[in-house]
Amino acid sequence: MGPIVSPKGKREEMTQEKPLLAQLLARFESEGDEVDRDAILDSFLEYVLELGLEPYPAQEEAFLELLSWKHVILNTPTGSGKSLVALAMHFQAMAEGRVSFYTAPTKALVNEKFFALCDAFGPEQVGLLTGDASVNRDAPIICCTAEILSNMALRQDDVGVEYVVMDEFHYYGDRERGVAWQIPLITMKDTQFLLMSATLGDTSELQKLISTHTTREVTLVSGGERPVPLEFEYRETVLHEAVEELHGGGESPIYLVNFTQKASAEQAGNLMSINVTSKEEKRRIAKELEGKRFDTPYGKEFQRLIRHGLGVHHAGLLPKYRRIVERLSQEGLIKVISGTDTLGVGVNIPIRTVLIRQLYKFDGERTRILSARQFHQVSGRAGRKGFDDRGRVVVLAPEWTVENRRIDQKIVAQPHLCLLYT
């Protein structure tokens, strides 16, 4: 599902001062806790239709289960509209005059959802809690990292949160951070949870565990069909050649996957020799950057990359820099984004092609091959509903494999060179 927006100018009877969702919520202001659930559903579907969308069957099922006050495990592919289901839960909470939280594993994703929900409900209705910032903390909708909610659940007998959206819920099984997803489920017994992930396996034991610790039923809503199918390709070529071929073939925007922040910056700089933007696009980028300050140690290099149509995106960047990359990407001005695999964790940047440099990463103890879940999480970002008829995932062979293949080709063409490589 694309970015959450509030359509304007589509209904003459509604004023333009507030987002459409805020206007629809005004219908429930005088009803208190006794809100008709059918009316909530009708109002939210009115919003969905105004967006020009038709809910998928999995979305419709999730809407109904949430309105039945059940926990919902939403296990559907990337791009299948989980964000819209989360929006429905926030809408339900607001209609009932209750508090809802949105949690995610990364500050980048939390910040992105904060701005999206501000657009949808109005900035006065949404707050932000991360380790770096606190904004409007008494708002009825709060966006925070999973650890923030976990700490609140441990320190307070009653957190006072009736609805919680846990995005990227597969982190529940992470050996280092999983406890932050587990604690709220154990301690917040009266809270309704929406648990979302594209890469969950068998959830039967999880459903039993949640139902044991809470007073609600647990429903699994799943679906295996992607709205935008993926194509996979393995290439034995060097990075800059792959980028040139993909961009020249109309396969951009491209997301270049790295597994460290340092590698993300280095690989973006290595692509400066490739021209991926037209003069007109460079002019538009320059206009977008007018008035922006790049006064940090990395600011000069970051600006140089952006003006060339190249972006860098990872948690180590300042939020203002990440916002620039996200905004220019959504406008189609950034053709290649070099970042870490955390972009696979929900950040809303339009991507047609995911380019994976390697299939192994250091996990803190040793170098390991990517798990199937990690690969699916990263590759799932390819393909944009409404823009692409398919997404593309390209995996590059290791550099030494490419080099050895080229040496073999040289020897075949010129056998006398064999002595140089033996």
If you had to describe this structure to a student in words, what would you say it looks like?
The chain is built from 15 helices and 16 strands. It is α/β, with parallel strands linked by helices. 39% of the residues lie in helices and 17% in strands. Helix 7 (179-187) links the parallel strand 6 and strand 7 (192-197). Mean pLDDT is 87; it is low at 1-15.
How much helix is in the residues? 25-40%
The shape, in one word, is globular
End-to-end CA span: 55 Å
Question: What is the structural class?
Answer: alpha/beta
Biggest sheet: strand arrangement: 4-3-5-2-6-7-1-8
Task: Provide mean pLDDT, rounded.
Answer: 87
Low-confidence stretches: 1-15
| Gyration radius, rounded | 23 Å
Counted by DSSP, the helix tally is 15
**Strand tally, please?**
16
